[in-house]
Amino acid sequence: MTAAAGLPARKLPANSQFCRPSAMGRMAWLFAGSELAGHRAAVLMSLVQSARLHGHEPWVYLKNVLQRLPLHPFHRIEELLPHLWQPQAGR
After folding, report:
1. What are the domain boundaries of the chain?
2. With contact defined as beta carbons under 8 Å apart, do 79 and 72 qualify?
C-alpha cells in the first residue's frame, strides 16, 4: 500500500515475527476467565516465545520439560529454562 502512495516500503525488523502471535491473541486473552488464568496464559506464552528466541521448537521444548519436571532436582530447576535447556538424548 505504501508503494502505491509513492512511499518506500518499510521492512519489518526480524524480531517482529515473534511479536505477532501475542498481538493476535491480545483480544482473546481479555476473556481468560480470571486473573489467575490470565497470569498462567502469560507465563506459558513467555516460555513459548523464549524457546523460539533461543532456537528451540516450542512443542518439543515444552513436552521435554514437562516430562523431566517431576524427577528433576529442585536445586537445578534453572536448567529447564529456555536459555539453558538441552534436550536429553534418547527422548
Report:
1. 23-80
2. yes
